[in-house]
Amino acid sequence: EPCLNCTCRLGSLVCYLRVCPELPNPPPPHCVLVHRREQCCAQLVCPGPDYRIE
């Protein structure tokens, strides 16, 4: 599970759930929300380097 971060501490399994940043819904014009299976959080992808938010 990509959103779960687990470690072993003193013989106990401790897990934390990652909280994703809030993204605009609907996305701005010419932008799309991309959610990849191996990543926890969706990304806002827009044309040009100044518009990418992770």
Outline type: elongated
Question: Could you give the count of β-strands?
Answer: 4
Mean pLDDT across residues: 87
What order do the helices and strands follow?
A: EEEE
From the helix content, strand content and strand pairing, which structural class follows?
Answer: mainly beta
Number of distinct helices: 0
N- to C-terminal distance: 18 Å
Helix content: under 10%
Strand content: 25-35%
- Evaluate the radius of gyration: 15 Å
Q: Report the oligomer.
A: single chain
Protein name: VWFC domain-containing protein
Organism: Diploptera punctata
Task: Please outline the helices and strands.
Elements: E1 4-9, E2 12-17, E3 32-34, E4 43-45
Antiparallel strand pairs: 1-2, 3-4
Protein name: VWFC domain-containing protein
Organism: Diploptera punctata
In short:
This protein is mainly beta and 54 residues long. Helix content is 0%, strand content 33%.
